[in-house]
Amino acid sequence: MPKKTIKRRATGKSPGGPRSKAMLLPPSVASVRQQCLQWHVALAAFLSAQGNGALLAQLCKAFYLAWYLCEAGYGSAEREWFVAVEAIIVAAARGGRDDLWRIDATDRPAVIRILDLHEQQLLSAPRHAITEAERRLMRFSQGDKTSPW
């Protein structure tokens, strides 16, 4: 007996309701540049052993959002890039226990690669995709998993 398929009627509406024009466009270049500046200032602080928990959280948010946006089809990166940066972040957090918030200069290229990827994602991804990535990050942060990848 053949399987019966169910066809959804096309309504022209996106799941989750209609989206405003602003949600269909990427963030402004000025707002993306402001965020990028904050990440690079945070990284500079860690490179000079002057980081802190708040700056680490900024970098973590950028890395995890980059992952979720890649999964949504905005940009591409090797999983290993994220694993490597996660190890760098974990080491920086461990150093924070001794009040030495630092990222080694040899780790800078790996961090920059993900930050550059995320900048390109923010310049091209519509806001609704970024909002969904932020929701996924929030769910991840409330769960038991130690890594989204």
Q: Radius of gyration from the CA trace? A: 18 Å
List the helices and strands in order.
HHHHHH
Helicity, in percent?
Answer: 55-70%
* Continuous helix count: 6
Query: Ranges with pLDDT <50 over ≥5 residues?
Result: 3-15
Report a brief summary of the structure.
This protein has 149 residues and is mostly helical. It has helices at 21-24, 29-47, 53-71, 79-97, 108-124, 127-142. The protein has six helices and no strands.
Explain what this protein looks like in three dimensions.
- By secondary structure, the chain is mainly α.
- The chain has one domain.
- It is 63% helix and 0% strand.
- The chain is built from six helices and no strands.
- Helix 4 packs across helix 5.
- The radius of gyration is 18 Å and the shape is globular.
- 23% of the residues are buried.
- The N terminus is likely disordered.
- This is Fis family transcriptional regulator.
- It comes from Paraburkholderia acidisoli.
Task: Looking at this protein, list some descriptive labels.
mainly alpha; Fis family transcriptional regulator; about 150 residues; globular; single chain
Write the layout of secondary structure elements.
Blueprint: H1 21-24, H2 29-47, H3 53-71, H4 79-97, H5 108-124, H6 127-142
Helix pairs in contact: 2-3, 2-5, 3-4, 3-5, 3-6, 4-5
